[in-house]
Every structure is written in C-alpha cells, then in structure tokens.
C-alpha cells in the first residue's frame, strides 16, 4: 500500500466513498418502551410508523468523457475473455500477445531514459547508491544501559506498552527483511504514478460498495486511502496503528485459572427468543428491488422511504472502469512485478526463519493443528457428511424404520415405506456398500458439472436424495435433520471445529423460506458450532422453460419478499424470524463454465421484464442480489436485527470478469481460481484483503489438477485464503479427509 500511496499526488480526485451513518433508532424492541412522535404507546394501539434514522448515502457515478472509452474496452474484454483464457497460461504472455501496445513500444526507450534520469537525481539527494540489505534486530546485552532500565509490572503496562514488548520480542527472535533506497517499486516513475492512481480508484469503488451493504473493509487499506482522498476516518477507524494488536505471541502474564477455554454452551431452546412488535409500512418490488413505503398511498405514488441502495447506472460505469483496468498493459506489468516481489519476500522469510518459527510453535502450550479453532466457511449442507457416514446412516434407517412411510410415488400415486423403496431398487441393508452408493467424485466428473451433480443421488436414484438429504420431502426432512445433528455432534466433540453450512433457496415460490425455517425449528437443527448460509442456484432458465416462473422479478420476489415481511412483522413468520438469527449470509451457486452470450448493460431489461428463456448473466444475478440485500440490511439494522453478507461462488471457472463483480459486491468469495490468470485482479484482491475460501480437493475433481492449484502461491503473496471442504460427501474418505 505504501508504494501505491507514494505514487499519487495528494490532489488526485476519485469517487469518494459514501459515509457510514450510525443507527440511533431501533423500533419494536419492547412494546412498553417504544415512542412514537415523542409519546408513549399503550397496548392495543396501531403499529408504529417506520421512520429510519439514516438517509440514502450512495454517491452516483459522475459521468466523464472516458465513460464511453471504458465501456468499449469492457465490451472487448467480455468478448475476448474466453479466448484469452484458453490462450494464456498462468502469467505467461507469449510474444504474439504482447502486454504493451504498439504506442507503448515506440515510447519505451524514452520512458526508460526518464526513469534513469529520475533515479540518478534521487540517488544524489537521498543516498549514494540503492542497495538491498537484510537486517537483524540485535538483542540487548545484560550489561548495557537499556538493560538497566526499570521494567514496569504487568498491571502497569498500557496496551501500547504491551504491543511494544510484543514487537521487541518478535524482533529479537526473527530476522527481518527490508529494502532500502528511494525507489523500491522496480518500475518507471510514470508507470508507478498511473498504476497507483487507477488501483486506488478501484479500491475506492470496492470500499463504497462494502460500506453501502454494511460489509467489512480492511482498516489498513482504509487508512492509506484516506491519505489520498483527504476524507476523514470513521469513528471506529480513528484508533492509532500503534494501539492495535498486530501480532499474537507469548502471553505477558499467566492465564487466569477461572477463564474458560471454551465458550459456554447454549442452554434450553435456542429458537426461543422474543418476537418484536410490528411496524407500519408497505413493501413492494420496484424494478427488481424491494422498496419500503410509509403507506399504501405512498406506494401508489412511488414515494420510497430513503433507505440506502445502489444505482444500476453507476454500478455498470464502475464495472466498466474495472474491466478497462484489468486490460491495461502497464498495470498488468506493475501488478505482476509486485506479486512476484511479495512471493519472493515470503520465500526469503521462510528461508531465514523456518526453524525459528517451528521452535516458537513448540513453545505454545496445548495448541497444535488439531486443537486450534478452525472454521469451514465453504461447505454445502447436503454433502457435509462423508460417504461412510451416509452409508452407515442409511443402513441404520433400513433396519430401524423399514416399515415407515418415507416417500410418495407420483407415478403410482401411493405411499412407499423405506423397505419398499429399497426393494424397488433390488437392494438390502446387507448389499449396499460404498461402491454401490456411488457418491464419490472421480475423473469422470472433470469439467462435467452435470455428472458431478448426479453424485448427490445415492445409488444414482433421485428418490434416495429426496428421502435422505432434502428438507422439503414427505417426512419434512426428518432424516436430513438427523444427519446434520450427528455431524454437529461430531464438531462439538472435537471442540475446535466450526462450520457454515449452505442450505438452498431456489426462488420457485414464496413458501420456501417458511418450509426451511420450519424444518430447522421443528427438528431443533442447531449446534453452537454451526451457522447457516443460504445459497441461490442460478437456475432461472430452467424454471422459465418449465413454466414455473414468468419473469426474473418473480424469482427475486420469492427470495427476498418473505425476508422483508418478517423484518416488518416477525409474528407473520415466527419460525423464520427465529431461524434468521443464525443466518450469516447469501451465496450464488451454479456452473460458472456455462457460456454467457448476454452482457449486462443499461440496455438489459429490468427483472420484471426479463421474460426470455435465457439465463441472466452472472453480474446481473449478483447485482440484484446485492441491491436487495442493501435495502434489507439497513431495514433490519433499523429494527436492531442481524444483517447478512454476500459471499458467492466466484472465479471457479468461466470468464475472468466474474471476479470483477465479486470484487465490487462480495465481502468474500469461494474458489477464486481464475485469479491466477489475472495479475491486476489478484493484486487488487491482495490490497483489499478479500477473503477466498479455496477447496483444492474439489477443484481437483472438477476444474484444476491438485498440483496446479494456486492456494500455496496465493498464501505466499499475502492474499487472505482459507482451506475449505466444499463437498466432503464427494471428495473425502474420512472425517479429516
């Protein structure tokens, strides 16, 4: 970030991020304490009027002369993305595909001369020559003056003093690497200045969209951006850098004996929480986004309550800027050099300090790989168990519930017991095994997402999938709930493992949310080690072809309107209200390798008018999911309820521009494999510290061989990566894999 900040003039202007206004009004928390227009409410009165404390703060994109140029470059990138993906390997640019264009080649000599001249001038002022040195902080001798200084007692240490001691302790044990000299970027000054300006503009775009949806943005990056745009820091970001705990190392004092190692377990029914009172407002879908109105008359007159929400035209203009950015030759060169520098620095650190890190690791009591806190942030609930677990459960159910009615055969129009289901398949509890279960992915699923999806069907039968791993079946998902609770019990037994399981909402009808919440609440599907995400499959084209939906707006209404209704009046969907407190975010899933023939532009129809059988593009899905989440999150925050983040599958396959949409709108993404082919985007993901949940075993069976997975390289370069399981049912043989 220092290279970028130093490469800019303080007068550079970019789009300012929207200010994050604090909520100071929470309605409906207690009917005895609510106030309406300064007067106390009495029991039995009408619901209070919704009056948000915040205003719409999204700054629309100001049109410039370059907008058309950006749009044209973005269009070319869209058209050529799939061709470039097949021609270019990871950071290999053949001679027939030069990074620089002809104009840059003609001016290359002059640029290098200017760079050499600037370097000579800087060297005369600052130093006689630039050199690279490796320095090691020295330890203090026992006889030195510093050793004689009084050491304060632990109780007298301030937080800043503690951090200084921590830093000194680390510096004494580890060799530090520093690069000296005025210019350490390794690129010409003009290129550095231009690249820095555009990269900062991209970071400001992401910051704007993260703040709008109440999603996280790294404080370090934010502080550097404030030195560029001269905007004041938010209150929560004004803490000085010295007061932050950057490293976690050896404790300065013994741990208190009465401090528990594990958090206290939840007692009683976790779904028993007070129901908030209703507020008075109207909800209506307008151009693909649910809007909140004060009354029915305001709804007819389109007088919307001013909750923050994005602007479609501004989003497309911002996306065009980023698309043009990733196609810029000098920025590609700059980003690649910086990534190579980061990777080399990590390798040098490992070479110097590997043995010391191992020694320090051994000095930490009690902790090792098996008893540190681990969170699996990317795993689908329908495949959260391994194949042996599912086989053992099926055999147990055949023996215990053989005469229980579990399935309704629509063709024969009759109920079937579990024994009759397996008799129709010619199987018994003795016959079925791992091989006949056939749920493990193999080489036949490589680049075949259709065959991979069929692996969710035990013994290749969709009826067994419906019986055992569905929430909305004849038994209301009883067996699936029992399996999830067994997996949760395993997590609790291990004490240190946590998971976020993804459950599906398809958007085919508005009752799906109530059915899912009823499944969770009625079967008490809860664990202190489990939280939920909801995944939205991008299957509108199938629903439209089958006549289930008439337009894309219906799908969005079925997904988001129940969430707005339960926020307005929790008593209208009491089980859903209880379930949502354990929901953390939304995911968008499907096969990204499907070709996209349609580009999201201003000419694209609104969701209510999208009646074609073609599937909307990836960016279209993500934008309207994000837009509805923005309004919903601010609506829920006004009510004092939890909010949700957007964490889609992104960059697993397909065109690179999916990662542009993810960079703008998503707090974290899953997979991100295509970053290895986009140096600029990879560097932006590093600067913005965008979380990436990677699944090498999953990728090995679908899109990328294990030895080519970029996870180790991403880690070395400083990207925020985590290891996730994705689908243990398909990829694992044991609990640990």
Short description, anyone?
The chain has 737 residues and is of the alpha/beta class. 42% of the residues lie in helices and 11% in strands.
The shape is globular
Helicity range: 40-55%
CA(first)-CA(last) distance: 38 Å
Number of helices: 26
Strand content: 5-15%
Number of strands: 19
Q: Which spans of ≥5 residues are poorly predicted at pLDDT below 50?
A: 8-44, 85-102, 119-159, 239-253
Structural class, from secondary structure content?
A: alpha/beta
Rounded to the nearest angstrom, the radius of gyration is 28 Å
Overall mean pLDDT score?
78
- The strand line-up of the biggest sheet is 9-12-13-14-15
Largest sheet: 5 strands, parallel
How does this model look, in words?
This protein has 737 residues and is an alpha/beta fold. The chain is built from 26 helices and 19 strands. The protein starts with a helix and ends in a 6-residue tail after the last helix. 34% of the residues are buried. The model is unreliable at 8-44, 85-102, 119-159 and 239-253 (pLDDT under 50).
List the helices and strands and how they pair.
Elements: H1 2-6, E1 35-36, E2 39-40, E3 48-49, H2 67-87, H3 102-106, H4 108-126, E4 132-135, H5 159-173, E5 176-179, H6 189-212, H7 219-229, E6 279-280, E7 282-286, E8 289-293, H8 296-300, H9 312-326, H10 329-363, E9 374-380, H11 387-400, E10 405-409, E11 414-417, H12 418-424, H13 434-437, H14 449-454, H15 462-468, H16 478-494, E12 497-504, H17 512-522, E13 530-537, H18 540-545, H19 552-568, H20 574-580, E14 583-589, H21 618-638, E15 645-646, E16 649-650, H22 658-665, E17 668-671, H23 679-687, E18 691-694, H24 696-702, H25 711-717, E19 721-723, H26 728-731
Parallel strand pairs: 3-6, 9-12, 12-13, 13-14, 14-15, 16-17, 17-18, 18-19
Antiparallel strand pairs: 1-2, 4-5, 7-8, 10-11
Helix pairs in contact: 2-9, 6-7, 6-9, 10-23, 17-20, 19-21, 21-22
